[in-house]
Design goal:
The longest helix is centred in the N-terminal third of the chain and has 17 residues. It is built from 4 helices and 5 strands. Strands 1-5-4-3-2 form a 5-stranded mixed sheet. About 40% of the residues lie in helices and about 30% in strands. With about 120 residues, it is of the alpha+beta class.
Length: about 120
């Protein structure tokens, strides 16, 4: 049986989940497309490559989605044995991923790992 990855959303200290919120606010057909990409990431994990995903910097990856002409990027990281945490999402308007978005993903990664053990993450998903 193939290993499946557990995809979860970064959760702020106030309980909000920025990526989940973004997805909920998309029109139904666009949300379905984004969730199909996330399901593909869940299936393939680190074996998902371009054009769907890419490594950016220091363990921060991007999920590359095109929604009605807009390049959308979901940043994520791998942790523990098979967990993928989606940290932030934005519309990409330039050739490069903005450094502030990568810094935000790194900050959220540190915060998430500091606050949640593997067991806690599995319990809440």
């Amino acid at each position: 049986m193939r290993k499946r990855w557990l995809v979860t959303y970064y959760t702020d200290r106030d309980g909000s989940k920025p990526v989940e919120k973004y997805l909920r606010e998309l029109p139904v057909n666009e949300r379905a497309k984004a969730l199909a990409f996330i399901n593909l990431l869940e299936e393939k994990g680190p074996n998902l490559h371009r054009p769907y995903a890419d490594l950016l910097d220091d363990g921060i990856h991007e999920l590359r989605i095109k929604i009605t002409g807009t390049q959308v990027r979901v940043l994520y990281f791998f942790c523990y044995q098979n967990i993928i945490v989606l940290t932030n999402v934005f519309d990409k308007n330039s050739d490069r991923v903005p450094k502030d978005q990568i810094r935000l993903a790194k900050k959220r990664r540190k915060d998430y790992i500091d606050r949640f053990s593997e067991e806690e993450i599995r319990r809440k998903t």
